[in-house]
Amino acid sequence: MKSEPDEFSIEDLAKAPKQTTPWFGVRNYVARNFMRDSMRVGDGVLFYHSSCPQPGIAGLAKVASTSYPDQSQFDRKSPYHDPKATRESPRWMLVDVRLDRRTRLMPLEEMRSHKALANMITLKRGNRLSITPVTPAEWNYIVARLDG
Questions:
Q1: Whole-model pTM?
Q2: What is the pLDDT of residues 19-32, one digit of tens each?
Q3: How far is residue 54's CA from residue 79's CA, in Å, rounded to a whole number?
Q4: Which of 80, 81, 82, 130 is 20 to 30 A (C-alpha) from 114?
């Protein structure tokens, strides 16, 4: 899950009540569908800082809730407001994310240097999704390097 650290960083998650936050503001149907259809409570999350001087994995988190409607879609004052969304038929969903632990930063360049991660969706050229699935092999490979 990608987040711009000037908007919400791993440090912000560490300071959040119960170190948990709703992952709101996703306005891409593919990313929404990953949260809605694929993410389960307890699933691991690579917390990735993007659009910053050194993008990369900054920590690990876990999915802490099933998906539910993103309330920002109904808030007319929110930059994430969607006038087509209704409470009866919400368009945008989210999950809560809970901090597992901050890690050393694994920069994008380092991730690209590992052949074992060559097929990782996040590393594909042109990928702009803020949420992408990670295979168990990719997860294990990355976590071993973050912990080692």
A1: 0.94
A2: 999 999 999 999 99
A3: 26
A4: 130
CA distance 59 to 16: 15
Only one residue has tokens 């409470």, namely: 87
Residue type, 114: H
Does an H or E element contain 54, and which?
A: none
Paired tokens of 116: 């074992």
Q: Which two tokens stand for residue 62?
A: 């876990």
Q: What is the pLDDT of residues 109-141, one digit of tens each?
A: 999 999 999 999 999 988 888 999 999 999 999
Q: Which residue shows structure tokens 């969607």?
A: 82
Query: Taking a C-beta distance cutoff of 8 angstroms, is the pair 41, 64 a contact?
Result: yes
Neighbours of 62 (CB within 10 A): 15
